[in-house]
Write a structure and sequence with these properties.
Layout: E1 2-8, H1 14-24, E2 30-34, H2 47-50, H3 63-74, E3 79-85, E4 90-98, E5 103-107, H4 115-119, E6 123-127, H5 131-145, H6 150-169, E7 178-180, H7 187-203
Amino acid sequence: MLVIGIAGGTGSGKTTVVKKIIDALPKDEVTVIPQDCYYNDNAHIPLEERLKMNYDEPSSIEWSLLCKQLSELKKGYDVEMPTYDFITCSRMKETIRLEPRDVVVVEGILVLTDRQLRDMMDVKVFVDADADERLIRVISRDCIERGRTPQMVIDRYQETLKPMHELYIEPSKRYADLIVPQGGNNNVAIMLLTDYIRSLLGSGVNNKRHKK
């Protein structure tokens, strides 16, 4: 099993890169673990307070659970991945069953900030994009998918996203094996990455699969 970590700022194009990797590899060969599913369960905190919390710093993620489930996948076991509601800022009751595959992609803005998780990765990728482009994508996504107004998104960007990016996300770039400039539009870099993944798969050994 190959574990690929894909990090980058909010709106940098990580999801596009992941999709292109999946499309380039044989069907059902990739399992994706989004970092966003592992936000701490803050259901016990009043909604008004949850909405004000900082979700762009490493302490907002339950890394221990993410690493534990990734370890289980590497051993060949299925896992029940948590799900998260961005409207209520709380973990949902539903889970998603993940099966071990030849390639596991761990994707999220902070996935290169956690040392234990980094040590479990075979390839570390940082998707880079200009700040203006990222902001435009964040406004579009949050207004459509998360029920926020453009002003809410801009305020959040200035108060949280930008300073957290500079403090945690941008510095994590130094851990990357490959930096993909121009986000998901850099087809050459994505092609090189997928070719490298294929070469590793060609020389690798698949894990046996078990069910709990």
